[in-house]
Design goal:
Order of helices and strands: HHHEEHHEHEHHH
Oligomer: single chain
Amino acid sequence: MLDFEATSTAFARQEATDAAFSQPDVRIIFQTFKRSFDIAFSILLLPMLCLTALCLVVLNPFFNRGPLLYIQPRMGRDCRAFPAMKFRSMLPAANIARGANDPLETHRITTLGRFLRKSRLDELPQVLNVLRGDMSLIGPRPDYFHHARYYLRVIPGYRARHRVRPGISGLAQTQLGYAAGLDATAAKVRADLYYIENAGFRLETWIFWRTVLTVLGRHGA
């Protein structure tokens, strides 16, 4: 895992280039390309989504009993809730007991679920969220809605990270990994705000490449 401060220094060299994206016309070009790429790439991933779902329908009764999908309300653009979809990786629970400052409930992760999380395959259904317009491939990672409402009150800058669509992957994920608790979430917010202010083709490509390396190296949570 890289240090965020080191990455900030590395990207400082491109700030003059990225500053051009403050111009409305250039930013519109970037956002149009970004959305078009989101849609095209998500469509390409649909066969993989269907194949993975079919495999899990067969394997879940033995290694991961319960529903195929886990749908959770998360905070999206403009702080609005949306239903984020994932392949379930934990034992089913009637209610979420984990608080906004609590660690991940690792004892609930199943054997098959651990593989899904490490390979990031559990997040594959979120390409449907991308196609719906709820999410982007790259952007600030959305938090559980009820936790997010708490973060809005206690973490400076947390509201500002919702100016853009949330992402399946993002700068904070590639830099800091899974964030649990207030301190980690505050660090995530700083990375997210850096991403929003410096959005551009170079940074987007770098995050995409880092995400590919994370998936291939099975460094998921």
